[in-house]
Amino acid sequence: MVIVPKVRGFICTTAHPEGCKAHVQAEIDYVKQHGPILNGPKKVLVLGASTGYGLSSRIVAAFGAQAATIGVSFERPASDNRTATAGWYNTAAFETLAHQQGLYAKSINGDAYSEEIKEQTLELIRQDWQGGVDLVIYSLASPRRINPRTGETLNSVLKPIGQAFSGKTINIMSGELSTVTIEPASEEEIRHTVAVMGGEDWEWWMESLKNANLLAKDAKTVAYSYIGPELTFPIYHQGTIGQAKVDLEQTAARLTKCLQQEGGQGAAYISVNKGLVTQASAAIPVVPLYISLLYRVMKEQGTHEGCIEQITRLFADRLYAGSTVPVDEGGRIRIDDWEMAPAVQKEIALRWSKVDATHLAQYADLAGYREDFYKLFGFEWPGVDYSADVDANVEIESVNE
Description:
Elements: E1 7-8, E2 11-12, H1 17-34, E3 43-47, H2 52-65, E4 68-73, H3 86-100, E5 105-109, H4 115-128, E6 133-138, E7 144-146, E8 153-155, E9 165-171, E10 176-182, H5 187-197, H6 200-211, E11 215-225, H7 240-259, E12 267-272, H8 287-301, H9 307-319, E13 333-334, H10 342-354, H11 360-363, H12 366-376
Parallel strand pairs: 3-4, 3-6, 4-5, 6-11, 11-12, 12-13
Antiparallel strand pairs: 1-2, 7-8, 9-10
Helix pairs in contact: 1-2, 1-3, 2-3, 2-9, 5-7, 6-7, 8-10
């Protein structure tokens, strides 16, 4: 079939296998150009490995540190006249390219919140890896989670806490600016959001690995977070998602104590990353407008980064740069440092106050945002013939063994 992008709301319902392969190859090329990551991890488990920061983490571990990787994600293969999801094609491409380099790479496709997938993952590690996992990346993002121990269905919401919030937002596809008003979350909605987006599942994964003696003595684990600027605080940092991130940080502290019991030298970290175009961020009111301004300013100042640049810095300059990992006063790794630089934020605040329909093109990088959005799904990659007939049915080697 000839595959074209079909956008509905803030998602694209189609994905292009050759474009997704080009995406993975481009990130691999960047990592190879950066040079090897010395003293990096050797056995890496990535939870949420198929897109965004999770995919980039798997690529950096494999092609930067020559690590064996297991990736867990929940993606849909192609069926009838439907393409697979972008994450499915990304995973298939990653495995193929990793195997060509002689790297161990296996993937598990299923609900990472479930006990079934957890046990399947533990069994694979037990069978294939000696010495235990030395890095666990937790990059799961979902609007919904079923608690495997209670059976309760939990749904996260993007809402302020305490009072309603009104702010500027943008329809990225049409370029239409508007004001959005969001009512405050209920206590039940806050509880659900913390249960989905907080640290409970991360902690259960780490406990399961430790109890099964599948962690190396010096194992590290990293979960990804975001803080952002004050102008997004009401809907993000001080909202329901922000409460979940507080829980994530508290979980990191507990996990570090657990990893350092009985002479262990491991640690758990929260990495605060830069705001980027992702399937998750596109759904958050106000954030797309902020990111379009951010892209414009950082490109003008020569500091713009994508996922792969961010994660390469995380591994090479933070996690594996020396005997200690540099953190802020809250114990967080900050690779959002270039985004939060005073010169960047001062310029964004100025543009935010001035941006309107007339001056949108002057202040924001709407074209750059759209390009990155389409690239998430395998479109607009140079060198790909999008008029060609392609087979949408692509297998992931280890999933189809």
